[in-house]
Structure prediction request, 652 residues.
Amino acid sequence: MTTLTQNRGRRGALWLRRAVGLLATVAATFFGLLLVTFLIGRIVPVDPVLAVVGDRAPQSVYDKVFHELGLDRPLWEQFWMWLQKVATGDFGTSFLTKKPIVEDIRRVFPATLELATVSIIIGTLVGVPAGVWAAVRQGRWADQLVRVLGLVGYSAPIFWLGLLGLLIFYAKLGVVAGPGRIDIAYEYSFTPETGLYLWDTARQGAWDAFGNAFSHIILPASLLGYFSMAYISRMTRSFMLAELGQEYIVTARVKGVPEWRIVWVHALRNAAVPLVTVIALSYAGLLEGSVLTETVFAWPGLGQYLTNSLQNADMNAVLGGTLVIGAIFVGLNLLSDLLYSMLDARVRRGS
Amino acid sequence: MTTRAWLLSEQPASRRQARLGQAYRTWLAFRGNWLAMVGLAIVVALVIVAALADVLAPYNPILGQDLNTTRLLPPLSPGHLLGTDDLARDILSRLIHGTRLTLMVVVLVALIATPIGLLVGTTAGYFGGWIDTVLMRLTDIVLAFPRLILALAFVAALGPGIENAVIAIAITSWPPYARLARAETLTVRNSDFIAATRLQGASSARIIWKHIVPLCMSSVIIRVTLDMAGIILTAAGLGFLGLGAQPPQPEWGAMIAGGRRFLIDQWWVATMPGIAIFIVSLGFNLLGDGLRDVLDPKGRK
Prediction:
C-alpha cells in the first residue's frame, strides 16, 4: 500500500521533471529561433531606413527615422524591443503588400494548411499499408518495389516532379486543373469562411466549386504526399519488422490467430506508437516542402509568400514567415514528443 | 600465396595485413550489394565527369551558338544530343559543367559541416556535465529549425550566390553529426585505452582529436553520405528559387527554373537537368545505404 503511493508519487515527480525539461527545451528553441531571425534581419544588406524614407530623403529625416527605429541603440536593446513587438504580434508591415505581416500570413496560411493536410492524408493512407506490406513480404519483390519507390521519392527534386506533373497531367492529358487553387469562374460561387476551400465549398454545398478546387489540389497534394509516403513507408516497414520479430507474435500464431489479424491488429497497433511521431514530423516537413511546391503550382500559400518576399528583399515578411513556419515546426516536434510519451506505456511509466 | 589468400588470412602477421584484410572483407561485402555498386558507379562517374568537363563537353557551357538556327533544338538533333536551350546553348555541355558545381557544393558542405558536428559532439560527449547540456541543447535548437526555410532566410540576408548557399546549407546541417559523434563518444570515453592515454599525460584536446574522433569517423561518414542527396536537393531548390548559383552558371536547379517558361512546347530544357539531379542524388542515396549496411553493424537486421 505504502509502496504503491510512493511509486505513484515518484512517477508523478518523474513526469513533472520531463514536462519541465520539455518546456525548457521549447522555450530555449523559441528563443533561439527569435534570436536567429533577428540576427538575419540585422545582417541583411538592405538599409531599413532607406526602405522607410526612400533614397531622396534629406539627411535630417534619415537621422530622425534612424533614431526612431532604434538603430542607434546597442544590439541587445534592439533585440529586446523586437521581442516586445513580436510578443504583441507585431511583425511590422510588408513592403510589398503594404499590410501588416500578421494579416498577410493569416490570409495565406489556410492555403498551405489545406495543401499539407491533404498531402499527409494521402501520404499516410498509402505509406502505412505499403510499409506493412513490405515488412510482411520482407526481401521479396513487394519489399523491393516499396524500397525503390521510396528511394525515388528521396532522390527526385520536388519542383522538377511538379513541373513534369503539370506537363503530363495538365498540359498533355488535361485530367487535372492547372496552377492556382481554384478557377476564377468559381471563385465567387462560395464565401471563404475558413479559407480551406475544400471544407468551405463542401459545407456550403457548392459542389461544382468543390470539384474544381479538388482538381486543383490533387496534383500538388499527391506529389507532396508521395514525398512523405517515402519516409512513412520506410519507417512503418522497420517498426513492423521489429514488432513481427517479438515473442507475442509467435504466441498469437501458436494460438491460431489469423495472420491478417496478427499483422493489422496486433503488430500494427504497437508499431502505431512511434509511427504517430513519424507522421507528425512529416507533417512538419510538408510545410517546408511546400515552399518549392507552391512556387511551381502558383499556390497562394505561405511558401509562395515567403519566396516572393525573398525575391523582393521584403525582410519583414521574410522574418515573419520564417518565424511562423519555425514556430509550427517546433510545435509539431513538441506535439510528436508528447504524443509519444502519452501513447507508449513504457515511456509513460518513465522506464 | 596469392594476394587474396594473404588478405583473407585468419592469422595476420602484421598490423598492416590485418588492417588491409579488414578493408578487403568490407569491400567484398560491399561488392555483393549490387544496388550499392550502382550508387558507387554513379558517384565515381560524377567525379570523373567533373574532372574532365573541359574535355568531355562538346560546346562552351556559357556561350551559345547561333541564335537564329540552333535555339531550342529538340534532343537528338545533330550535334546536340540533349538539345539546346533558349540561348542556343548545348544542354549536354551545361549538364557536364554543372557536375562541378554540384560536386563543389557537396564537398564544401561536407568539409564545413562535418568538423563542426564532430567537434561539438565529441566535446560534449567527452566532458559531459554542463558543457554537454549546453552544447546538446544548442544542437537540439538548430535541429528543430526547418532547414530549407532557414537556408532561405540566410541566403536572403547574405545575398544570393552559390557560396552563400553552401554556407547556409552547412550551418543548418551539422546537428545530426554532432548527435551521432556524441553517442559514439559516450560509448568509448570510459574505455581503458582512453584512461591509459590520459595517464600518459595527453591533453583532452589530444585525446579527442587523436583517439576519439577517428572512432566516430565511420558512422559520421555514413551519415554524411546519406545526407548528400539531401544537400544536392536543397542546393538545387535554392538554385531553382534564384537564390543559389546565378546565371549564366550551369547549375542544374537554376537550369530547371530557366526552362520552366518553355515547359509545354520545349519540355527538354527543364527535364534534362532534373534527370541529372535525380540520378546523382539517387547515386548518393544508394551508396549511403550500401555503406551503412556494410560498415554499421547496428543498422544490420
